[in-house]
Write a structure and sequence with these properties.
Distance between the termini: 43 Å
Strand content: under 5%
Largest sheet: 2 strands, antiparallel
Number of helices: 7
């Protein structure tokens, strides 16, 4: 088979599988499971880069492949998946279609730009990034699950509009030329752990 199948790439594929399964849960109306899948994809994305940097025997081709495959999977996980969620709330025309297009298009632009700049950066520097330009796409894996849990305090007829507003704002932040400080691994683990506990606690309470 073509491609590379080291530990970091396999973890990226697991994140992709989680999001694809999550999309199928949206079609079945199982929203709690869908948001959990989104969260799992975020956790996979959080660690695949760390594992990749820890692998000292990667070839130049493996490094470039890792960058490309990570962004391609991120597009599905954190661009297409949220768009499907937004569409499922009944926004299948007008502004709903526009917001779905916006978050996917912004993710494409951001990830493509990141690929170009990251490949160039790695040619001259092996140190990890300390900041990002624009909001990283992975943040939707924390924002939307927490919005889902908090959204149950919002009237059901209002929540879909709130979700749409978040989608549009996040799409803009993806490509806005602002510096976003990169969290330390401890900070990221803490945030994802809190988000996971909140979502899991909600799911358990609902059942």
């Amino acid at each position: 088979m073509i491609g590379f199948y080291n530990a970091s790439v396999i973890l990226t594929y697991i994140g992709l599988a989680s999001s694809v399964f999550g999309i199928t849960r949206v079609f079945e109306g199982q929203y709690a499971a869908a948001y959990l899948c989104l969260l799992i994809s975020g956790v996979c994305d959080m660690f695949d880069g760390k594992i990749a940097r820890a692998m000292k025997n990667r070839t130049a081709e493996e490094k470039v492949f890792g960058i490309q495959i990570d962004s391609l999977c991120d597009l599905v996980c954190f661009g297409v998946f949220p768009a499907v969620l937004g569409y499922s709330y009944g926004f299948n025309h007008g502004l709903g279609v526009i917001s779905a297009y916006m978050i996917v298009q912004a993710a494409v632009i951001r990830l493509g730009y990141f690929n170009v700049t990251e490949e160039e950066r790695q040619r001259i520097c092996s140190e990890p990034r300390k900041k990002y330009q624009g909001l990283p796409v992975t943040t939707v894996a924390m924002i939307f699950p927490l919005l889902f849990v908090g959204g149950h305090n919002i009237p059901k007829n209002i929540y879909p509009y709130v979700f749409q507003i978040f989608m549009i704002v996040i799409a803009i932040l993806f490509i806005l030329n602002i510096n976003v400080k990169k969290f330390s691994i401890k900070g990221i683990v803490l945030i994802f752990t809190m988000a996971a506990l909140i979502v899991l606690g909600y799911v358990k309470y609902r059942h």
